[in-house]
Write a structure and sequence with these properties.
heterodimer, A: 582 residues, alpha+beta, 5-stranded antiparallel sheet, 19 helices, 36% helix, B: 261 residues, mainly alpha, 7 helices, elongated
């Protein structure tokens, strides 16, 4: 039954009349059907679009996987072979410091399953550098986490792991290794527990060594590990033989200022810096100042030559009697008690003669020369461990100070100051800042002129003369044309000279016909020994070691010994006393 | 119906394309994973190499090498005389002929009769009667001031270079202790040289079957008489040393030079 407007539909007989009435409700029905069909079509289209979108989404996702998500894979950390901290290598590529994955044995004491005493007894034979008591103390600690040992060998780590204690963990952690142990320890330094540089070059270049962008490139130093070994070997032998308080040594390239070797005795093992004392970690080559005695006479005579005070090598100065100035007496250790020529003053290390030259040069020119040599400030180079020289204030720098500083007393500098000064003295007069980093080949080395070329030439001959016929004869190495100057000064402790305690220094350069390297060796408070015949002076203690050192490093550095060549000493050789006095 | 078939075809095509793309994607991903694995392995190997290098460097550290050199090797830096200035200097070392450097074989003089080192050294050559070969004798003698120089006398027949054992075996103990015949006055001939005498060539004196190292020879080798060890009585007292310092008679003597080879 069809309901129309809620009323029963008319019969079929009345259909013709009722037709107009009945047709009117049909129109909304058809509209609804059309609307429904339209809606269905819309839904179908949407569904079709949805289906069509699936491959598009898949294609997009595939593109994303293939292109965008694939790119970072190659840049993952695992693909980066750079060490966590850059290596340090010498000038020939030999490793001086590197980082490697070591084992650390740690424990969570509260979670220990076994008896700490039994465990300590079983671990002690494996970790030979720790006692059973120390291990027991760690195992029985009340804290949550303790290290039993770090830098453990893999074989030892495996044996500890085989003990089966669940509260003992093995961890791989980056450790800094210094393969040569004590060698160049004062130069390289070491890192702290956090892996950051604590001392020396490790500290000075900490950012470069640990930066992501630069840690893949090793830090190349100017050091030559072979020269370093030779220097340490010779210096340590003297240090032990003389039972000295300390020693320092430097080998430097005079043309570039590169430091090829630098050491201080006693030294320490940077792999275990905590086991060394403060004295061992003290770099006396750059961080300690000394009155370096007669080695300063070379600077004084050079300033005399440079300023025109000394016009001839036959020029004489009165050294016939001790010099009294301002209530103080200056005397000679190797007194000739007569007038001496400049070469005689230098070769016999006359304090009186040098004091007279210094006086003639004058305070202002002396200070200007020392300032050009950088003797009034810290050495400008990479290490942070460097000391400022000690010298009298200008108000107290009178004639007496001028004279005493002229022969190396009254002013304290580091051995590195002395090495840089001697490099300028023999290389033609140009001062170069010392450096521990190998310079880029071909790049000009900065420097400034201190002495004239002619002054440097004369000083080379005078320094050679000291070794051939002066106080430094024991420093001669056959064929290497060694030149140098001894320096023996009384040691200053707490502002007072200590009688009987010396600081013996030898500053050398070779080969003197074309100087390439400066060697400075210093020994603090030698006691005298059988090999030095009881003497404590530089000529008997440190000069022989300098000779042995140059004989070793000369061939390594490409300096060919030649017994048929030498410096022309005819212009500076001392003449007979009769001829001098004419 | 036709419309549905078209849609179905499109759907199937889409699904096939999608599955195909996904398969390719899987393949590429697996290849990438393989490459990544290789790269990881490379890095791991590089780290392992670094660790091994670190161990090697540590074991061969310079202070340790120095200790070895001080205690065992004893090597030293070359000195001035060991450097050559030119190839000509090198060539000059090869100028001397081999015949001018005879080996020292036998000393025939007593310590008292040795001429001082300042005496002139005369080199003479003569023809040996048996072999007819030129032999070079180096003889040092002191020239008398007034008396004429006597004829150079060869103190003993020339002895060829022979093994020490053979040389010692030829001398009986009694002969070694007997007083020697004094050489000519003022003459101290030392030295000698030179061409091995065929009679003392041990290889020639041996039977032919011992010349080769066949299995038979090796089996026969233990049957050969053992080499005689030298005794103090058989060895001449070295010049400048006292014979009383020698070990007890009968004890073996080390014939190697002092300090080993």
């Amino acid at each position: 039954m069809i309901l129309v407007g809620g009323k029963p539909a008319p019969s079929l007989a009345a259909a013709p009349r009722a037709a107009p009435v009945n047709r009117a409700p049909v129109t909304p029905l058809a509209g609804q059907r059309q609307a429904a069909q339209s809606l269905a079509r819309q839904r179908l289209v949407l569904l079709l679009l949805l289906f069509l979108a699936v491959p598009a989404v898949l294609a997009l996702r595939l593109t994303d996987l293939a292109i965008f998500e694939a790119r970072p894979a190659s840049a993952r950390p695992i693909a980066n072979a750079a060490p966590p901290r850059a290596d340090i290598i010498d000038r020939n590529g030999i490793e001086l410091a590197r980082t490697f994955e070591a084992y650390a044995v740690s424990v969570e004491p509260r979670k220990l399953a076994g008896n700490p005493a039994v465990l300590a007894r079983r671990i002690a034979p494996i970790l030979t550098d720790r006692t059973e008591g120390e291990i027991y103390a760690e195992l029985s600690s009340k804290s949550q986490f303790r290290y039993i040992a770090r830098r453990v060998m893999p074989s030892e780590a495996k044996r500890i792991n085989d003990l089966g204690e669940p509260a003992i963990f093995l961890r791989r952690e980056s450790e800094r290794l210094y393969p040569n142990f004590n060698l160049a320890s004062h130069v390289i330094g070491y890192t702290n527990d956090a892996g950051h540089g604590a001392v020396a070059l490790e500290k000075a270049f900490d950012k470069q060594l640990s930066d992501d962008g630069t840690r893949g490139t090793p830090l190349q130093l100017s050091l030559d590990v072979r020269v370093q070994q030779a220097l340490e070997h010779e210096l340590r032998s003297v240090y032990l033989d003389q039972r000295a308080a300390g020693a320092a040594g430097i080998v430097m390239d005079v043309r570039t200022g590169e430091i090829l070797a630098m050491t201080s005795q006693p030294d320490f093992n940077p792999n275990a810096p905590g086991k060394s004392d403060d004295a061992s970690r003290y770099n006396q080559a750059t961080f300690a100042t000394f009155e370096l005695g007669s080695t300063f006479k070379a600077f004084t005579i050079a300033s005399g030559l440079d300023s025109g005070v000394i016009t001839s090598m036959s020029q004489t100065y009165d050294a016939s009697r001790p010099l009294v100035i301002a209530g103080k007496v200056i005397h000679d250790d190797h007194a000739l008690n007569r007038w001496e020529t400049v070469p005689e003053i230098f070769t016999h290390s006359s304090n009186i003669g040098t004091a007279r030259i210094a006086s003639a040069v004058g305070r202002d020119r002396q200070r200007a020369m020392l300032e050009k040599l950088g003797f009034f400030k810290q050495v400008d180079f990479e290490l942070g461990e460097r000391s400022r020289p000690q010298y009298p204030p200008l108000s107290n720098w009178g004639e007496l100070a001028t004279m005493t500083i002229g022969y190396g007393h009254g002013m304290a500098v580091t051995p590195l100051h002395l090495a840089a000064g001697y490099a300028a003295l023999v290389n033609g007069g140009i001062y170069h800042n010392p450096t521990l980093v190998k310079p880029v080949p071909g790049r000009p080395i900065a420097g400034h002129r201190v002495y004239k070329q002619s002054t440097s030439d004369t000083m080379r001959a005078l320094l050679r003369l000291v070794v051939t016929s002066g106080t430094g004869r024991k420093a001669d190495a056959p064929g290497y044309r060694v030149g140098g100057k001894t320096g023996t000064a009384e040691k200053v402790v707490n502002g007072r000279y200590v009688r009987g305690a010396n600081v013996s220094t030898f500053a050398a350069a070779f080969p003197m016909d074309a100087p390439r390297y400066v060697v400075v060796m210093m020994i603090d408070d030698p006691k005298g020994s059988k090999t030095s015949f009881g003497f404590k002076t530089a000529g008997m203690t440190i000069a022989p070691a300098t000779s042995r050192l140059i004989g070793k490093i000369g061939p390594l550095l490409g300096v060919r010994p030649d017994a048929t060549r030498d410096v022309d000493l005819s212009t500076v050789a001392p003449k007979a006393p009769e001829a001098v006095e004419e | 119906m036709r419309n549905y078939a078209g849609s179905a075809m499109m759907l199937v095509t889409t699904m096939v394309a999608a599955v195909g793309c996904y398969t390719i994607n899987l393949k590429v991903s697996s290849e990438r994973a393989g490459v990544e694995s290789l790269r990881t392995q490379l890095v791991s190997d590089a780290r392992e190499m670094r660790n091994l290098q670190a161990e090697l460097r540590t074991r061969a550290r310079f202070p340790e090498l120095q200790r070895w050199n001080d205690n065992v090797l004893q090597m030293s830096a070359p000195v001035a005389g060991q450097f050559l200035r030119s190839p000509l200097q090198l060539a000059s070392y090869a100028a001397a002929p081999a015949a001018a450097k005879p080996g020292l074989v036998y000393t025939v003089t007593t310590p008292e009769s040795v001429a001082p080192m300042t005496a002139p050294v005369v080199e003479v050559a003569y023809n040996a009667p048996p072999a007819g070969e030129a032999r070079l004798i180096r003889a040092g003698y002191s020239v008398p001031q007034r008396t004429p120089v006597p004829e150079v006398a060869m103190a003993a027949p020339l002895q060829p270079a022979a093994p020490v054992e053979a040389m010692v075996a030829r001398r009986a103990p009694a002969e070694a202790t007997a007083p020697r015949r004094a050489p000519a006055v003022g003459v101290a001939a030392r030295a000698v040289a030179i061409v091995p005498r065929p009679a003392l060539k041990t290889p020639a004196a041996k039977p032919e079957r011992l010349q080769t190292a066949s299995a038979e020879n090796r089996a026969a080798a233990p049957l050969r008489p053992a080499a005689r060890r030298a005794t103090p009585a058989m060895v001449e007292t070295p010049r400048g040393e006292s014979s009383t310092a020698s070990p007890a008679p009968g004890a073996p003597v080390d014939l190697l030079p002092k300090g080993g080879l």
